[in-house]
Write a structure and sequence with these properties.
The complex is a heterodimer. Chain A is mainly alpha-helical. Chain A has 13 helices and no strands. In chain A, helix 10 runs antiparallel to helix 11. Chain B is globular. The chains are: A mainly alpha, B alpha/beta. The interface between A and B is large, with 70 and 79 residues.
Chain lengths: 331, 699
């Protein structure tokens, strides 16, 4: 029999959250070129050589992870998820990952010269922790078997770990210094990325939870063991990565706390219990990840507050409504 | 400094870490204390006494010798003594930090403070009192009691030997010739170098596709000029203190209006994309009328209009000229749907916050100098509404005909403290003197059209801040009838006292602004609205707030009218309500007459990030600090409309919307604001729901 090809039908949402996630994703669309990164040149010069190196390295690391997520993670998961609308959201998210990966380059290109940038990309190729975590995640993505929900579940967990957990050792530093008024435009870019990743993490987390619910109790037990084992493996590697990057500026301790905090958040996204003790995180960084609109003015940065507008035409009744209101208010 | 966050920043950030469901407001007090003990005190240069300090500051080129020479040492000492005796303390970290970080004079190396807040106030008072020791004390009083606050350029620069200009705001006309465009760009560079924001009116420029030297289709319109201006502003920064800022205004009847707006679209092509330049549109009533009737609107090619009438399109009253222009075959035009344009403006505001909107018919109907000239555009913060006259910039060997551009120096009353001290007449009078002194002292020689207007017009802009703070403190809702009742009386008083002072200054100096004879003050029409209405409070709650105030009666207004008609007024323009950014932090006040945006504000300036709990916030008034995004914007417009009646220039008004509104909702606010008599709208701020908020209601 011939295969039947099905068109995505947004008139019939496949569940009650899918359209909302599509809207959330598309309304926060942005491009790296909207942010005037050149404003950061002044504060770039105030960073010490060690600080500059950390900044470049974390961005290099983040570029690698976003590349993996955009080129492999999201497309592979999208390929194996059956629902057409979920696929659509995942592919949109994949496109955003590419914009993220490019936006780090926008920052690089603005602040550093060619040879320094090349050195960073070389460093990314040689840094063992970075290579290891990318390989582990990549293996799980590539291991998804057709019509096998368990391998798909593993890939979703890996994706949530990548986006809600592994990114944050890198996010820490730009947030930390932009909280102190340095590299503020770059900080805006990081916050826009973070705003996206938090939506991606929630969405893929929901998909994972749906699959988990469909498993037998034995399979659920197996899944749980996989989650925590994998988390611990990644965490151990992350500790090494953090030490390599942050030791030179004495922030290792703070970053590790932040990594554990986000590991717990990733677990919550996939509906699992937190693994690490609750700790006090540096408030400057924690405030940086709150995704509300903050106050800024025309002398200041662009801000993450603006978004694509919802367009609706004016109607006669709108004018009638306003005229009525004018009349009422003048009485 | 090491890599670690300072103790005071951390304490300040800890406000947000809730304990037992409560924000830790006391952490902010600890933060201020730590900031002083661990930072400010350790980094302030110590002097044994005032004499030693002033000598040092003068000898090392920090302070102006001539300024201090106007006074005896005794007089100077009295001012410093008085200011220090008031025992001023910053109530929040943000206010202290703002002062020391942005305003305090530092050593040349930049690492040590040479001024405390009291010192800045003392030198500011001395500088603004023109050698009058008694007046210096009076000004010191309104400054240290935080009743009056000069705008940043004045407060920051005054008294310094090496400084920028004291004036914050410039507006420039651009004529439709290459000489004029060159003059405008040069002026923009010069002004950006020395001052604050520069706004330019592009409505006179010929549109894309119009002829150059009679050859059709050669003009490239306003977009390339915008690009050049944007780059000019990012090049010229005030000694690196902040990037230059610029705005451009275009009339909605200019054929380039669509392209003008699209430069701000998120997906705009890089070649035309405008990132840092602010945009404003000038919208006559006719535009809204056509939209209401759902008709097409004709856009008029400015060059063809000028050719046909010998007058620029935007120098005309477009609303009354519209039919004439439509029917004139000499005028080249293009047709679009009025509603589409309105929606496009709304869409852009949601995407980028821009454009600002000037309701040009409201502005010109209520214009005290309507017989002298038209108000054609506004400034970077949309609170300025003054006439301008374009210059004729000729070739090098010929003399230019210099017209009037606009400069305006600003200051604001702190409503809470003005109401507390109950001495509003004197406070407003002193504020007007302080502002006038800045205007008198300013002469922008690089831009003769600005210098000419300043010399002719003596314009100033007195505004107000801390309205929401005042209302919350007195347990009044911002959206209530009482709030509007308060605003109408308060701004009536500002109008009365400022006009009274302007009249007294004209009498004293025997001098009015140029063209006073043709103003609505001279013919008395300005006072029509005060003939039958005294604008005293109508509600009991607000009557109680004004208890003990002497409110001018209708007879008092009549008397003022007679005095004005006899002696004239000194200032062509007096009042303008600015958005008050940094200075409202210094004053621990809520910004302008706007509603607050966050009970605890997260502030991202280009240079720092801190948390700022609203003034006087506590369990008992928490409820009265409703956040702007939760308010009914129609009610906010109603309140601004009450104030606007008494303000001769404009009021910078921000719309606050949540992201679930559509362009249609936003457009309704514009229509309403226009009908309610607002002169301008500043930008629109959109609050995005966080993912937690929306996922929790759906899953």
């Amino acid at each position: 029999m011939n295969k039947v090809y099905e068109a995505v039908n947004w008139d019939r949402p496949s569940n009650d959250y899918i359209e909302m996630l599509w809207n959330q994703n598309t309304s926060q669309f942005w491009l790296d070129t909207e942010i005037p990164v050149s404003k950061d040149l002044k504060t770039w010069d105030t960073l010490s050589d060690e600080e500059k190196l950390v900044f470049m390295r974390v961005l290099g690391g983040l570029t690698l992870l976003d590349t993996e997520q955009g080129n492999v993670g999201m497309p592979m998961i999208a390929m194996h998820v059956k629902d057409q609308q979920k696929k659509a959201v995942l592919i949109f998210q994949a496109a955003m990952e590419e914009i993220h990966a490019k936006s780090y380059s926008t920052i690089f290109t603005t602040v550093a010269d060619q040879s320094k940038i090349d050195n960073i990309f070389q460093w990314v190729k040689e840094e063992p922790h970075l290579q290891k975590k990318t390989k582990w995640i990549d293996d799980i993505y590539k291991n998804i078997q057709p019509n096998d929900d368990y391998s798909l579940y593993q890939a979703m967990v890996a994706s949530v770990f990548l986006e809600s957990f592994l990114f944050y050792s890198g996010f820490f530093y730009p947030l930390y210094i932009s909280g102190q008024g340095k590299m503020v435009a770059s900080g805006e870019i990081i916050k826009l990325i973070l705003r996206d990743e938090s939506v991606h993490g929630v969405f893929v987390g929901l998909l994972a939870q749906e699959l988990y619910q469909s498993f037998s109790p034995e399979k659920q037990q197996e899944a749980k063991e996989f989650v925590y084992t994998f988390l611990n493996t990644l965490y151990e590697n992350e500790v090494g990565y953090t030490e390599t990057v942050y030791d030179s500026i004495n922030l290792t301790h703070e970053v590790k706390k932040y990594v554990r905090y986000n590991a717990n958040k990733a677990l919550m996204n996939i509906g699992m219990e937190p693994h690490f003790e609750e700790e006090d995180i540096n408030p400057v960084v924690l405030n940086g990840i709150r995704t509300e609109t903050s106050t800024h003015d025309f002398f200041s940065t662009k801000g993450k507050g603006y978004q694509k507008g919802k367009v609706e035409p004016l109607r006669d009744e709108d004018f009638a409504f306003v005229n009525e209101l004018v009349e009422q208010s003048s009485n | 400094m090491n890599n670690h966050v300072s103790k005071w920043i951390e304490l300040n950030n800890e406000i947000m870490m809730q304990k037992d469901g409560q924000f830790q407001f006391d952490k902010d007090k600890e933060a201020v204390k730590s900031y002083f003990i661990d930072y400010v005190n350790k980094n302030t240069v110590f002097f044994h006494d005032l004499k030693e300090k002033l000598d040092y500051l003068v000898e090392n080129n920090y302070y102006e010798q001539e300024l201090l020479n106007q006074y005896s040492f005794e007089e100077i000492k009295n001012v410093y003594q008085y200011v220090y005796d008031q025992k001023f303390r910053f109530p929040s970290f943000m206010s202290a930090f703002k002062f020391y970080h942005n305003y305090s004079l530092r050593t040349n190396e930049g690492d040590k403070f040479l001024e405390r807040y009291e010192d800045r106030i003392a030198i500011c008072s001395l500088a603004l009192a023109q050698g009058d020791g008694k007046k210096a004390l009076d000004i010191a009083n309104v400054l240290i009691t935080q009743q009056y606050q000069p705008a940043t350029p004045t407060f920051l620069n005054v008294g310094r030997k090496r400084r920028g200009e004291l004036v914050s705001c410039f507006l420039l006309e651009v004529d439709d010739s290459m000489n004029a465009i060159g003059y405008a760009i040069n002026s923009a560079l010069q002004l950006s170098k020395i001052g604050g924001g520069v706004s330019l009116n592009l409505s006179k420029l010929r549109a894309a596709g119009e002829p150059i030297k009679e050859i059709e289709g050669k003009a490239s319109g306003v977009l390339p000029v915008m690009k050049i201006l944007e780059d000019s502003f990012s090049y010229a920064n005030q000694l690196g203190q902040r990037d230059g800022s610029g705005a451009v205004y275009l009339n909605v009847f200019h054929p380039d209006i669509n392209g003008f707006l699209e430069t701000k679209k998120i997906n705009a092509d890089e070649k035309i994309r405008i990132k840092t330049l602010s945009l404003g549109v000038v919208a006559p009533d006719k535009f809204f009328e056509l939209a209401e009737k759902d008709k097409d609107m004709y856009l008029f090619y400015p060059y063809s209009v000028h050719k046909a009438y010998g007058q620029h399109l935007d120098d005309m009253d477009i609303s009354s000229m519209y039919d004439e222009l439509v029917n004139n075959p000499e005028v080249k035009k293009k047709k679009i749907a009025a509603r589409d344009l309105l929606i496009k403006i709304a869409q852009l505001q949601m995407e980028s916050g821009y454009p600002y909107i000037m309701f040009s018919d409201n502005t010109n109907k209520d214009h005290a100098l309507k017989q002298v000239g038209r108000v054609k555009f506004s400034n970077l913060c949309s609170e300025i509404a003054q006439l301008s006259e374009v210059s004729n910039i000729t070739d090098y060997h010929l003399p230019d005909e210099i017209g009037r551009d606009i400069s305006c120096n600003l200051g604001s009353l702190n409503i809470v403290n003005v109401m507390k001290e109950n001495n509003m007449q004197q406070t407003v009078h002193l504020a007007m003197e302080a502002l006038t002194e800045v205007s008198d002292r300013t002469s922008i020689s690089h831009v003769p059209s600005v210098a000419k207007a300043n010399e002719d017009m003596h314009s100033v802009g007195l505004g107000a801040m801390n309205l929401h703070g005042f209302l919350a403190k007195n347990k009044l809702n911002y959206e209530s009838k009482e709030a509007r009742d308060f605003v109408r009386t308060f701004f009536m008083l500002m109008n009365y006292y400022s006009l009274e002072k302007s009249m007294l200054m004209a009498k004293e100096r025997g001098k009015t602004f140029v063209d006073y004879e043709r103003s609505e003050y001279a013919n008395g029409n300005y006072f029509d609205k005060y003939k039958t209405e005294n604008y005293h409070p109508q509600t009991e709650l607000v009557q109680a707030l004004f208890e003990g105030f002497e409110l001018p009666s209708i007879e008092d207004w009549q008397q003022l009218k007679e005095n004005v008609m006899e002696y004239g007024v000194y200032h062509a323009y007096r009042l303008a309500v600015a958005p008050t950014g940094s200075i409202s932090y210094l004053q621990s006040a809520t910004a302008s007459i706007s509603p607050i945006t966050q009970k605890i504000e997260e502030r991202e300036y280009g240079d720092s990030k801190t948390y700022y709990p609203m003034p006087y916030i506590g369990a008992d008034n928490f409820f009265y600090y409703k956040e702007a995004y939760d308010m009914d914007m129609f009610k906010v417009i109603d309140l601004v409309a009450e104030a606007q009646v008494h303000v001769d220039q404009a009021i910078s008004t921000i719309l606050f919307v949540k992201d679930d509104l559509s362009t249609r909702d936003i457009a309704k606010y514009y229509i309403y604001a226009n009908k309610k008599g607002l002169k301008t709208l500043y930008y629109t701020r959109t609050k995005k729901k966080t993912i937690d908020e929306c996922i929790s209601c759906a899953v």
